[in-house]
Amino acid sequence: MSNPETDSPSAVIDIDGSNQKTTQDQPASKTAKKTSKNLDIDEHLLSFEEIQEKWTTQFNPTKPPQSLGLHVDVAAARLTQYGRNVLTPASKTHPFILYLKCLSATFNLLLVLCAIFTWILLIVDPVANFSSNMIPANCSFVRDGNVKQSPASELVPGDIVHVRTGDKIPADIYIFAATDFKVDNSSLTGEAEPQERTNRNTHENPLEATNLAFNGTLAVSGDAYGVVVRTGDSTVLGQIANLTQGESKRESPLSQEITKFVGIISFFAISTAIIFFIVAYLNSTDKPTTGAKISYALNFAIGVLVAWVPQGLPSTVSMLLTIAAKRMATKQVLVKDLQGVETLGAITLLATDKTGTLTRNQMTVTYLWTSLKMVVAESNSESILNPPEVRFDRKISGIEEIINISALCSKARFDRTDVPVAQRVISADATESGLFRFAANKLGDTIDNLEEMYPKVFEIPFNSENKWAMTIHKKSHQNGELSQFIKGAPERILRICSHILVDEALVEMTEEHKNNFTEAYETMAGKGHRVLAFAQNLLDGQNFPADFVFDKEKKNFPTTGLCFVGLTSLEDPPKHGVREAVGHCREAGVKVMMVTGDHPLTAEAIGRKINMMLSDTKERLAKRTNRSVESIGEDEYHAIVIHGERIDSLTDAEWDLIFSKDEIIFARTSPKHKLQIVKHAQSLGHIVGVTGDGVNDSPALKKADLGIAMNISGSDVSKEAAAMILLDDNFASTVNGIREGRLIFFNLKKSIKYVISHSIPEILPFIFNVAIPIPLALNALQVLVIDLGFEIFAALSYAWEPAESEANLMRVPPRKPVTSDSIKQLKERNLRYKDEVDRETGEPIKRNFLQYLLYKLRRPFTRNFWLDFKEKKDGEILVDVNVLSWAYLEAGVIETVGCFTAFYFVLFYSVSNITNKPYQISFADSMKMTSVQPEQTFTTSTGRVLTWYEQQEVIARGQSIYYFGIMIIQMFNLFACKCRTGYPFGIYPLRNMRTWGSLVAGVLFASLIVYTPPFNVAFNTSYMLEPVFWVIPIIFGFILLIYASIRRLIQRKFFPEMNTTEIEGLLMYPTRFSTGSKH
To answer: Where are the beta strands (DSSP E) in 881-963?
Structure first.
């Protein structure tokens, strides 16, 4: 009989390192390249003599404190040779380089180009990186026979290190002496259970070696002496960190879409500017010189470029993401990369580690089997039990004995006794802590006096040979004063027992009892639990009086004929709220899968408790239907559990089959495997999020579209690799993140839709000025103070826009869902671009700036470009046809008509401040006054003679109302763009109080530009504009809202929004597994 949790291999990094003969003499860069396949460590295969010879050190395995260690001079030489025992910090981009990258964005480059052209016109016409120290500050080591305390960074290969309980392992060490030594490898391998370490080893895989302890892991019990064999970047921790740094992250979905949108707008902007530069030059026949013609045409081209570019868009996007990131921080989600805010809302697949992420990394007693009864440890009168389970009751025979053995036969102790039991910290490994906590919860304050009541007289700690721990206490009974308690591996305990406790009676063990034991053990182990057995022996007073002296060497204590008391199973339970969080993710169309280093049974058992796996796997379906596994068709099951051993041999077709399943668990995986999983998921079009807390998670965290690390339990390496950190270590916080990410995407889309709506009314005045021609209704500076003025206030208000429907927000499918059609389309696209991908790495071929520029210029003339252009786009993108249509063909046109109407009303009806008569400039008249010459009068068709000053004034008023009109109609557009699924009339558009603040700020800003005389000079506006003309853009604002409502009515009727399908079997109500309730 074997326990699947404890007897299975503990290593989770899949490497064939047994025959590697490399040493730390290799440079770190070379070992980093090998990390993806092999770990550079093989000392675990060497004998004591060989290890001393290899590192020219001296130690005494029988008397470790008498070891000599390295000579000081040798240590100093090696420190120079190998460097300090610290990990190389991840390379970071200098802030100035980041600034240049932002400055080199396409929109910004266009504006820089405009600035350069403006200077040309003036010439033509004069009118920390701080290192992350992941090494313990000090450690105890031996040199020249003397024990020293020194910074761990000074350690070199060959040093003799002494590690005690609670110490962090300072380097990779080869253990030559150990006493009850256990290490917590969970941060490195994902194993929740502490691993025993001795000076013996039978494993070839270094991570399974029992004579190696790795840098960064924690000593949880005992002490050990070891030889340092790897330091700094050459440690296993360092090699995994190098593997992380070697991975590149692809552009976020938001970056890709903005880049594409910028490319489209830039194409139109440059094309329009060039075309109308030529038109303006040819039309400038009234200019006296060629220089004047070029100056005029270039000035016009600059205006077109400025009008096309939404100058406020980059800052608006950045500020919206920043505000959202700040809001997410209040919900325990810290964003390191602003793009990650939106990426979290776009993910289609969330791959999560188990230990410490989904579970608490805290063993908890779940079941007890005693007196032939299966008892649920935490249950009450309202608990729903599955026969033959029974509720917990201390009156059941054997329960009290198990509680006492858990408390007395243990090295676990509380750190303090002056606070309630629930608030105390236990110093012990996870299993001991779980049993002791269980006993303390049942015994209450009695636990503090238990040792005084029943003093311990003898003890044998747990070891790998016996696989049990034993204590003898002064606990009296009918036949004597001493009681012997023992706990350990079930098959070992059963072997030394001749009797079993049944209903308070000592009954001789029969085959039926053994069969019942086997059935109970398999039931517990089948749930993926850690199973321990308990036995006792009430020692006869005649043979073992109260003053009897027990001796380990003489073995004068009973090792057979004990009474079997029962079994307990412990599990690392899910964190509070995880089950509901996984359920919400799945309801939102996000595929959640587990990628863990734990045993498949454990992983599947946890998965079925947290809504991750609801349906049958192929094996379960075969067992349930009494059919062979081979007879089950691929379309009959939708859940799959993959063992890490299979991953390396999987074909592309098998990968496709795995990801086609709704419920996926990968068990016994390594960092390399996790990388493979992420890469294969991304190759199918998934936007992948990865959560994790251990060093073993960091490569996948770095490669994923969004890496999410844990703050409290997370390792430094994982936090460095991640783009987002859960501050409270609560997986349920990811649901808040996804909800926030989706909301910010919709709000970003609304904001962009609003911002670019004024592009057409900004562009057309320049085009009409040359093409018709008519007076310029809006100048370039006014365009700038639109985009960087009142529009900024309004656009930013979308950052606080609430969801139109909180319920529907998490029922909308991911905006880029992965389907069979999308996978087929992606594979065809990849096939078209196979020559542009590095065949060894699978990454796009990197180009220098000139190569990239030539590639971009040549691409529109390639077949692939037009195939991509015609390709059907699935899902929802940031700037889609709907947004472009609204901005450029619908709202943009309405705004343009409204502004030009107001412009011509001002030209005709506005009253001159000199003659107190209307200017009476008709449309036909305006075509004759495209330019105003000094001291030149103009006669309208009605006979009205306008002086040069009046001409300037009326144009300034016309440009003022055009500028002010854009602001007014955009105020209405602000409400029209708010509603994605509803109507712009009602309560929802009014809920965001910051909208009103932005409107007030926008009106004040626009009024400052128009109605403040000093600004009139700079921006060619006029404070004499009569407010009565505001009515015209207000009317067109209402027309815009009415049009938006009719448009929404048609969309809701013919293009209804699709929600995700309901998932049967989701458990979304609180239970003891999701809330931690004991009642």
So the answer is: 938-939, 945-946
542-569 pLDDT, tens per residue? 999 999 999 888 889 999 999 999 999 9
Instruction: Name every residue whose Cβ is closer than 8 Å to that of residue 570 and which is 6 or more positions away in sequence.
Output: 363, 364, 365, 366, 431, 434, 435, 529, 530, 531, 532
- Select from 695, 726, 720 the least CA-distant residue to 130: 720
Give the model's pLDDT for residue 239. 80
Residue 523 or residue 599, greater confidence: 523
CA 233, distance to chain mean position in Å, is 26
Q: What pLDDT does residue 137 have? A: 61
pLDDT tops 60 at residue 530 = yes
From residue 880, how far is each of 393, 884, 896 by CA, in Å? 63, 6, 22
Please give the Cα distance from 666 to 644 (Å, whole number). Answer: 7
Cα three-residue angle 739-323-738, rounded to 5 degrees: 15
Q: How many CB atoms lie within 10 A of CB 450?
A: 16
Spatial CA neighbour of 600 closest among 1, 2, 3, 5:
5
Q: Within 10 A of 730 (CB to CB), how many other CB atoms are there?
A: 21
C-alpha count within 13 angstroms, C-beta hemisphere, residue 496 = 24
> Is 50 exceeded by the pLDDT of residue 3?
no
Q: Where are the alpha helices (DSSP H) in 60-124?
A: 72-82, 95-103, 106-124
Q: Is 353 a catalytic residue?
A: yes
User: Pick the residue with more confidence: 605 or 248?
Assistant: 605
What pLDDT is recorded for position 2? Answer: 38
Neighbours of 223 (CB within 10 A): 16
How many angstroms separate the Cα of 484 from the Cα of each of 144, 396, 405, 436, 756? 46, 21, 9, 18, 81
Cα dihedral value 10, 15, 16, 22, nearest 10: -110
Token reading at 432: 């001991």
What does the chain come to in residues?
1079
End-to-end CA distance of the chain: 35
Q: Which of 763, 775, 363 is nearest to 568 (CA)?
A: 363
| Whole-number Å distance between alpha carbons of 664 and 1067 | 18
Q: Which two tokens stand for residue 389?
A: 């389970």
Q: What SS3 state is found at 360?
A: coil
Q: What is the mean pLDDT of residues 982-1011?
A: 90
- Residues 838, 840, 841, 842: is their CA dihedral positive or negative? positive
Closest residue by Cα to residue 900 from 966, 828, 994, 983:
966
Within 10 angstroms of residue 496's Cβ, the number of other Cβ atoms is: 18
The candidate with the shortest Cα–Cα distance to 486, out of 380, 555, 557, is: 557
Alpha-carbon torsion 158, 164, 167, 169, what sign? positive
Q: Which of 353, 598, 716, 787 is catalytic?
A: 353
Question: From its phi and psi, is residue 640 left (phi > 0), alpha (psi between -120 and 50) or beta?
Answer: beta
Residue 85 is predicted with a pLDDT of 81
- Please, are residues 883 and 871 in contact by the beta-carbon 8 Å criterion? no
- pLDDT in the model for residue 499: 96
- pLDDT computed for residue 514 by the predictor: 94
Report the SS3 class of residue 574: strand
Smallest CA-to-CA distance from 953 within 909, 910, 901 is with 910
DSSP letter for 931, please.
S
- Higher-confidence residue of 81 and 1035: namely 1035
H or E element at residue 472: strand 468-473
Question: pTM score, two decimals?
Answer: 0.71
* Average pLDDT, integer, range 596-608: 83
433 closest CA partner among 597, 711, 609, 194: 194
Asked if pLDDT for residue 15 goes beyond 50, the answer is no
Per-residue confidence band for 179, with pLDDT thresholds at 50, 70 and 90: confident
Write down the pLDDT at residue 34: 37
